[in-house]
Write a structure and sequence with these properties.
Layout (H helix, E strand, L loop, with lengths): L15 H18 L5 H42 L3 H38 L6 H24 L1 H7 L4 H12 L2 H19 L4 H24 L3 H26 L18 H29 L5 H39 L2 H28 L12 H21 L2 H11 L2 H26 L3 H25 L3 H14 E2 L2 E2 L6
Antiparallel strand pairs: 1-2
Helix pairs in contact: 1-2, 2-3, 2-8, 2-9, 2-11, 2-12, 3-4, 3-6, 3-7, 3-10, 3-11, 4-7, 5-6, 6-9, 7-9, 8-9, 10-15, 10-16, 11-12, 11-13, 11-14, 11-17, 12-13, 12-17, 13-16, 14-16, 15-16
Length: 505
């Protein structure tokens, strides 16, 4: 089995759960490299071992992402029961403005995922807490700039050509999401820090408790206090802060984090320029992905019947988001698995994990696509009672099913990219596939050929297909032994003051 020259910090304590995970990882590498086993035996034993590791990460991660998404979705559902116009406004504010901040913050937090994952696999435990704090400082500063976009959301939406009445209502909704920006700034670094150590279940419990509080507060604010769109978005912001506080308390109090959390450090304020370079590459990669479908909603707002188009697309995007959260959970799991294995010097385990998680994710997406097609005529009634919206949603369901199939592969491959540190490379791919091919093609079909929302979405699916095929080709051709050496080089180059050269390819 390949080994690493890194040793745990002499101050680091031992924790049974962490040691068990590390030993299990070593077992997988030995199984896959054992010449005494036949190929069939290696595959069968390796699959059993990997599935145990994968599902211990993926199931809690899926629960966390699903619960977080349910909070946002339930906010839109409450708004939808106020009326179709309120649903369209909440959709435009949430998907047209809020997703901008979400994509940027999540993308910048992805640098923490790469570095923490590889450092943990290599036994460099003392640096994980520093990475967490540096990212939190950097994302908070970014949040201050993003606040300006929220404050001026109404003129921005008008400039983009959205109807004035819907834009005005969407701006009110967005104002209540300003505190959520800074919850993102703390939550995403914490989330990646914990995931790198395979600590996922506590976040699921905390998120579940926050969801219960969120639903109760939303019901009271909408139906009892009558605070409308602003009240619903403020409740969403408060719920995110409940999650942040709960996770931070866990980090400070838990024995599982004592190797990696040494308290607040002044090092958090050093090396920010170098850390920003890492975060920027990660942000560009993930922002280009999250903004891609944001453009779908913004373009739909320019159609002849924007209220109907926005309402139907909002429902389809929400359903897509449900299933996408499963893929995002698997994305997080494979990112942790790949980064940990590369940091530990286990190339065969890293490659095998990629194969297993891709197969599992694709099977789930096939089942989800079939369910969408079977129930296409009744899906919209969970959000609104309008028959016109129900018909529009039913008409879009074939495209939704195709999108779900693509989501069974693409997010997993993006997780592999994060685990390996390929963010900058994938960013270039995303620019070409999404913004040079997908959006122009969707605009051509939607406006020039008068295909409406179906044309816009169909053209943009073409860009996603191209991106997925390219990522599959890159992953298939990867030399995993070389990636182990790249991970070792990154960790050797990283000093307390920051990297001396770019660490992400």
């Amino acid at each position: 089995m390949a080994t690493t020259t890194y040793q745990p910090s002499p101050q680091a304590g031992d924790h049974a759960a962490d040691v068990k995970a590390e030993e299990t990882s070593g077992v997988l590498e030995r199984i896959l490299a054992d010449p005494g086993l036949s190929l069939r035996e290696r595959l069968w034993s390796g699959t059993q071992c990997e599935l145990r590791l994968l599902f211990s990460l993926a199931v809690p991660a899926v629960i966390v992402y699903m619960i977080n998404y349910v909070m946002s979705m339930s906010t839109q559902m409450f708004a939808g029961h106020l009326g179709n116009r309120e649903l369209a406004a909440a959709s435009l504010g949430n998907t047209g403005i809020q997703i901008f901040a979400y994509g940027l913050m999540l993308g910048m937090g992805s640098a923490v995922e790469t570095l923490c994952g590889q450092a943990f696999g290599a036994g460099r435990y003392d640096m994980l807490g520093v990475y967490l704090q540096r990212a939190a400082v950097l994302l908070t500063l970014t949040g201050l700039l993003l606040t300006l976009i929220y404050v001026f959301s109404y003129p921005i939406l008008i400039f983009l050509g959205e109807p004035r009445e819907i834009a005005s209502m969407a701006a009110v909704f967005v104002y209540g999401l300003i505190p959520q920006i800074f919850a993102y700034a703390i939550n995403f670094p914490i989330q990646k820090y914990m995931q790198a150590q395979s600590i996922v279940a506590p976040s699921a419990y905390i998120s579940a408790a926050a969801l219960v509080v969120h639903l109760a507060m939303s019901w009271a604010v909408i139906f009892k206090l009558g605070l409308g769109l602003l009240g619903s978005s403020l409740v969403l912001s408060i719920s995110w802060w409940i999650i942040v506080v709960g996770q931070f308390v866990y980090i400070v109090k838990s024995e599982r984090c004592r190797r990696t959390w040494r308290g607040f450090s002044v090092q958090a304020f050093t090396g920010l320029v170098g850390f920003f370079k890492l975060s920027a590459a990660s942000a560009v990669m993930l922002c280009l992905e999250s903004w891609y479908f944001q453009m779908l909603v913004l373009l739909a707002g320019l159609l002849d019947n924007p209220e109907l188009a926005l309402a139907s697309l909002s429902i389809c995007m929400t359903i897509n988001g449900w299933v996408f959260m499963i893929s995002v959970g698997l994305n997080a799991a494979v990112s942790v698995r790949v980064s940990n294995e590369l940091g530990a010097g286990n190339p065969k385990s890293a490659a095998f994990s990629v194969t297993i998680v891709t197969i599992i994710s694709f099977i789930i997406s096939i089942v989800a696509a079939i369910l969408v097609l079977v129930s296409r005529d009744v899906l919209s009634y969970a959000f609104t009672g309008g028959e016109r919206v129900a018909a529009a949603v039913s008409d879009l369901c074939p495209l939704l099913a195709l999108t779900l199939l693509l989501n069974g592969i693409q997010p997993v491959l993006s997780g592999v990219a994060v685990g390996c540190g390929w963010q900058a490379t994938v960013a270039y791919i995303n620019v070409g596939c999404y913004y040079i091919v997908g959006i122009p093609l969707g605009s051509l079909l939607g406006f020039h050929f008068n295909l409406g929302a179906k044309g816009i979405w169909g053209g943009m699916i073409g860009g996603t297909v191209m991106q997925t095929l390219i990522l599959m080709w890159i992953t298939f051709r990867t030399d995993w032994n070389k990636e182990v050496e790249e991970a070792r080089r990154r960790l050797n180059k990283w000093q307390d003051q920051g990297p001396t050269e770019p660490l992400l390819k």
